[in-house]
Design brief:
This protein is an alpha+beta fold. The protein contains 4 helices and 8 strands; from the N terminus they run ββααβββαβαββ. It has an 8-stranded mixed sheet with strand order 1-2-3-4-5-6-8-7, with helices on both faces.
Length: 169
Amino acid sequence: MRGSSVVEAVIPAGERLELVPLEVSHAEEMAEVLGDPALHRFIGGEPESLEELRARYARWEAGAPEPGTVWCNWVVREQAGGRLVGTVQATVIGDSAEVAWVVGTDWQGRGYASEAARALVGWLRERGRTVVAHVHPEHAASAAVARAAGLVPTGEVHDGEVRWESRGA
């Protein structure tokens, strides 16, 4: 991880996917991938416009403004065909990393989120990080992804979401 910005590493995520450092240039394709309002059922809000997504990705590329915080953001890309299907991210502070994932509606149900989350959590654990995710208690699919990535529910609830955790290697 460099400075307070996006990491430069491409992370293989199994035979089908790879995690590629997110860039503003991904916004156009990602606006389509993330455009389904159903993706916001558990997190609230609505899909961002292309302009909003470009602005968000530019902020992410610029890096976290807080000293000691590193933003790590990747797009999830199918190796066959190169299509973008989602994103994974980690906010790293010291020895802890909070992670999140989203896969577009058209690509759900194929194990892509689990494959990408396993790769992300594994990469962070190899670097000694404690990995944390927060999952809405009614979001069974996201809980399954967290479990597949080696996270376990702690029983703690923050802002209505269950804290899942895995200790660094």
